[in-house]
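Handout, tutorial session.
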Amino acid sequence: MIPVVNESDIQIASRERDSLLPDDMYRASALWLLNLEGKVLLARRALSKKHNPGRWGCSVAGTVEEGETYQSNILKETEEEIGLVLTVQDLHKGAKLLLKGKHNHFCQFFFAQIPKTVDELIYDEKEVMGIRWISIEELLQDVQENPESYSVNLAECRLLLERTV
């Protein structure tokens, strides 16, 4: 079950994931992982994903389910998607944005720094079809030049990334 929220991020209903209506607002969490060189980890969404299949996006993202917080959701999703176990202490809370468009949702962003290479991360191929480290400058330039390669939310959230440079 997915909590449906109002413009103040207060839960007003719950729906099955496949029963969400076009005007329903829900909650999502997203994580930007940075390495010791200041590069960010991008994840390419599996082709089977309903939203933005085959497109590059943030390191980890997920829809908050009934009984979860933004924080507990991103910790669960990080382990499920890229096999990385993080703790609450590893997370730095970023902005929470209301993203409107085809899907309306609040997205709570988190940041964490990890000393890992791509080879040290094992991703779930049902969720992710590839990962890579990229400098923030290169990413921002590529998003501008090739927006079709990236998730819609990544393009909308570029100001968030620019603040980390």
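The second record follows below. Compare its token runs with those of the first.
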Amino acid sequence: MTIHKLNNLSEKEAFDELVKCCGSTNWVNSMVAARPFNDEHELLEKANIYWSQATEADGLEAFKHHPKIGDISSLEKKFANTKAWAGNEQQGVATATKAVIEQLAQGNQDYEDKFGFIFIVCATGKSAAEVLDLLQARLPNDRQDEIKIAMAEQHKITRIRLGKLMGDSVD
């Protein structure tokens, strides 16, 4: 997609495209309203500004748009509109051993039980073992610190997905 095309989509069409990048309704509405963008640099600048204004509730809403790391059935059912993107982002998990997948599943459950939301990590370029190490390293955090970390990870994912939306013309 080009900036010109994004700028000329209807509000609903723009919403439907941008929600693939981040599931926070407030963030998406802000991005839709910010159009027209002059270029991809401005698109990312606005994405940064609006995410920096996001509340915990915005983060929690965005997290609900992600499958659990390694949860392929969730990718297929609930997240059909971002399946290809999320699947590629979790490519390192797809080749993991059964033992690592089982540890990720247990770690995800422990994380969700403790914090009340799924483990969010920018998994692009990371092996399953690296993701597992990050999960285990973050489990001792308190909720206040963890929500900040998870929201920062969400922002990394959003930027990557904006790049994918724009045909990887943004960085």
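Points raised in discussion: Confidence is low (pLDDT under 50) at residues 74-83.
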